[in-house]
Amino acid sequence: MASIFELPEDLLATLAESFPCRDAQIRALATLLYPRAAPCRNLIVHGTEATGKSAITTTLLAALRDDPGTDLNYATVKSAECVTARHLFERTVGLVADAVQWQGPAPGRCETLAALTVELSRMLKYAERDAADRFVLVFDGIDRQREAPPTLLPALARLSEIIPNLTNIFILTTPSPSLLRCSSPPHLHFPPYTKAQYLSILSRQPPPSSLPNTAPEETAELWTRFAAAVHDSLTRPAARTLPALKHACAALWPRFTAPVAVGTHRAREFSRLLIAARAYFQDEGVLEPGILSSVPSTTKPATQSLANGTAAIAVGAGAGTAPPAKNPNKPKPSTDLSTLLPPTARLLLIAAYLASHNAPRHDNTLFSTWHNPHGRRRRAVNTQARHSKKSKHRKIARKLLGPGVFVLERMVAIYVATRREWVGDHDENNAGGGNGKVVVGVDGDVGMAIATLASLRLLVRVGGGAGAAVGGADLDRGGRWRVNVGWEVVRGVGRSMGVEVEEWLVE
Amino acid sequence: MAVDEPLGEAYEEKQHQAAYIFDPSDAVDDGTRPAKRRRVSKKLKKSEAHTVASTSVYPRLFDGAESERCAHIRQQLFEHTWSKIESRIQRILREANQSTLRQVTSFLQAAPDHAPVGKIPSAFIITGPNIASQDLLFEQLAETLQLQADASVVRLRSGDASNLKAILKKMIHDAVAKVTDDEENDLEVAVSKDGRRFLNYDLEALHTHLKSSPRRHVVIAFQDSEAFESGLLSDLISLLSSWLDRIPFALLFGVATSVELFEARLLKSTCQCLYGRQFDVEQSATIVAKVFKAAVAHSEAPLRLGPNLVSSLLERQRDQVASIPVFVSSLKYAYMCHFYANPLTVLFSEELDEDALHGENLEALRCLPSFRHSVEMAVKEGDIQRARLLLEDDRYLTTYLRDRLEHFRHWAVKFLRILKIITINNSSSAGLADMYLDSLLRGVNLSDQDAEIGESIKRMQPSDSILFLTRLLDVIDNGDPSLGLDAGAGDTEEAVMELSDILADIKRLHQENEEEGKVLRSKYSGQSKIVRTTVVAQKVQLSRDTAALTDNDKLYTDLMDRVLEQLRIVLRVEGAEDLVFNEIWLYDSKALYKDVFIPRPRGVGERALSRPHDYLGCSCCRSREDQVMPTFPTTAVLYQLYLETGSLINVADLWSAYYAIVGEDNEGGLDERTALVLFYRAMAELRVMGFVKQSRKKADHVAKLAWKGL
């Protein structure tokens, strides 16, 4: 042994090659892990999303394990896969057993931290092993662990005190000062990439495809400038991660270079290309196609949609001055509840909205026919103009505020009061001829409609009993509810029934 | 237990009565040992009866005078006919989902090839708001995917998913148990190779299981995805996506509203884990129309359901959140009611034996209004002999009945054929339902009430009329299997011959004119009038002009006249109500259906409280509209007072008002202590029924919870 302190240099070199711009972190990590360097007991690796924490840690550990010169073994526990703390413990034990190829008796249940300590000690401490070999236990994303007890992190940190040769690595987003409740464990920060780093990483990877009628060098240069533009316009303000930038570049590249492919612009004319593709840099539509890359009702697979977009742009560019059209495949959003719900449910939804957004003291004015000789209800008078002059406090329109809570009985009362007017207007002749009378009243069907709205989460139960009755099974009239749709939706629903909901709202 | 069971027994006996006084005390009295022994023996007998013949459910009608056999036949008839109808409906429902099934299957089969890495392929099935009816769809999906896409399918409902652990437990259990199907394997699977037991919510177990029995997909179907708590769903999806590199998950979502609304509820980061496609199922309106064809209008359906009932059923499908299973069970209920309560349904039976045709049944037949009407008609026509025979000779009546029932069968087929012909032009089958409802009772007659149809046929362009006639002849020649119509012209063969001749003529004329480049028209078609525009001194003058008809046009006009004439012969049928004995095969009551399928518990309770006489039927409680009587049950008295209060009720005021009604000042009044006891009891009852609750706003007040009429 030549020196007390040494690092596996060639191993680190290959690692640095595959993870560019992370030299410092890799070296630091290797120093803190390599048995012949300065191995530590606990290590906190932190940094924001997609900065290479987990990838570098696991790759380095795998490389060290496979290195014949070192006796190092490791196991990685991903908290994202563990549902409870107990699940985490059992997985830890299982993974460690797999890693050390445990031959002894199968570990039993492992419900608590104490049991975890016992099991790990059995496998790591008392097993016959070299004094020099180390075991590294990586807890990936431990700060996101579900149902974690408050003592979880400190207790895990104590494991390495009980078991010599054990190194714990905690990978998390932001460490708090007293995370492990032990004095100054080493912290290793993975900072977000800078613009220069982003560009150097991106320029290592060639553009998805070489451009026609352009030299490869020109393409590469255009790619770099393009990546810088994408970074400045999209990544800096919004998506700050490398995968997001890669995705954005990959998605925009064909659209951006479409004029070059068609031949209207040349690859050197970067600013003209940028102006032609300006719309894409301002709009996220292309990058965020929504939940589902191919929700469109068309039955084409997603891969085609990109090609279609390109073709459409090409046509647009070929036509001349026309700016690139929006993604032609974008479906019209079908958020229109009015076409989805049957009339009774729609009426109930409006009634619920009114109940949520009108104060109960206005109910008499709005819905009562008592004081009005003609049997017509007084509509709400829009008094906002008067208010804004007099009062110093600007009042926020109720419909802009969150929905209020109402008692179910009140909503049903509003439904009954409004139904006669709203439906009566439409069905007067129909009802007169066919059924003889307009059935106003609450029967099983109304209950069913309310239950349906509740199960669609358009109405939600609040307060006691909300959790008990998932899907709105409990239709107790004394229950407290809230409407869960916004003004735009309700207005649309109202108009589909010929009702201007605005007239029924008191400002 | 010993006390409870007699109560249940007493209830069981009474539960089919419209109303009864619930008095537990008399049942409890004989809840002693001997009574119990007796009851047990009775139960035994009942179960024996069940095993011997599960048939004696239908009661003997005519106040018990109906023979046991007739009741039996009625029940069998019901079971037989309904099972046929139901199988037709089932076939339709299963077929309706076929295209969705195919699409989803092919999507999932192809998903591994084109889904981006790290995204879960997910199919969003837009089912419409009646999620409850989609069980069949998901059942079929599970079957198909298991067979064709080599997937193991787990169906989840919002009900069995209160938290993440519970969902995972169910998922793993179902996915593992589906394949192994027996306990031992199940246990084996929960243990890893080195003998560790997995937690029952550990996806590692599923992973291990998949190693031993590999599958292309593990499909998780969320049947009512909107009802799942969105946080839970997001959590689950991100968990599944973290396992995606080891377990080939795929998701199915049943979405009631729209994918966009559903998406808005999930976390953005969750959405990025999904790679989805939207699928639609067949519109419930079209399925309802198909079911209508197969169950209501079908020629083999023995019962004609009247427009009153059917239109309210269809309306309910349109206006309410009612599902197709509800529609089907409503139809079933109508059948049940008819066969259960109408003794004459025994006459549907194929072999009308003497047993069915004697005594009470014949008597009942003679009481039918349609029969009386026909006798009166016979008298009016001077056929006294026949009228007498009908009334007196049982044998003659039997023959007549057979003849009429036979006639009904012909009529039903003819009616359907006519409907089909009339609705040839509007392709939607909803038109058929409307037409059916319109003309079932009054029949079809082109010369009077349905003259409009005739007019529209008359105005047809030659190309249209050729198409119309071709289709018409096609319907007559081939029938319509979806309606159960056989081929054949029936009694209108001559007219059909004539019509096909006319069709040939029209075709010839049309061709001739086309060769000459002219337009063939009749004097009825709209183009016969031409509007001429003349500009005179900067003013536009419109003048109408009748275009001269060519010879061919005149010929065409004649032909169309003849078509109409023939159609008047072909398309003529009397209404159901004009047929004798229509009471046997016509059912058109919606009151029963409404009571059962659209209950109004609140209304019933309110009525019972405000007019107890309606239910109790005692003389002391008879009152005029909304008048309180001291003899009312105390709760009813309190309820009347309750209706007059505001939202907070002062209990002391309520008491004094109550005492003023029932107190000693009145005739036969109660003393204060008795009244107070009754008052307390009634208040407690009101509270139990949910009318009032304790209020914290004011001392000695209760809050009013229910308003009348809601």
TrEMBL record, chain A:
Residues 223-282 form the ORC5 lid domain. It comes from the Eukaryota. Residues 19-166 form the Orc1-like AAA ATPase domain. One of its GO terms (cellular component) is nuclear origin of replication recognition complex. It is found in: Nucleus. Gene3D superfamilies: 1.10.8.60, P-loop containing nucleotide triphosphate hydrolases (3.40.50.300). It holds the Pfam family AAA_16. GO terms for biological process: DNA replication initiation. Residues 373-392 have a biased composition (Basic residues). InterPro entries: AAA_16 (IPR041664), ORC5 (IPR020796), ORC5_C (IPR047088), ORC5_lid (IPR048866), P-loop_NTPase (IPR027417). Residues 365-392 are annotated as: Disordered. One of its GO terms (molecular function) is DNA replication origin binding. Keywords: ATP-binding, DNA replication, Nucleotide-binding, Nucleus. SUPFAM superfamilies: P-loop containing nucleoside triphosphate hydrolases. Belongs to the ORC5 family. This is Uu.00g063680.m01.CDS01. It comes from Anthostomella pinea.
TrEMBL record, chain B:
Residues 23-47 are annotated as: Disordered. GO terms for biological process: DNA replication initiation. It is found in: Nucleus. Pfam families: ORC3_N, WHD_ORC. The keyword Transferase does not apply. Keywords: DNA replication, DNA-binding, Nucleus. This is Uu.00g046490.m01.CDS01. Residues 47-347 form the Origin recognition complex subunit 3 N-terminal domain. Residues 606-707 form the Origin recognition complex subunit 3 winged helix C-terminal domain. InterPro entries: ORC3, ORC3_N, ORC_WH_C. Residues 34-45 have a biased composition (Basic residues). One of its GO terms (molecular function) is DNA replication origin binding.
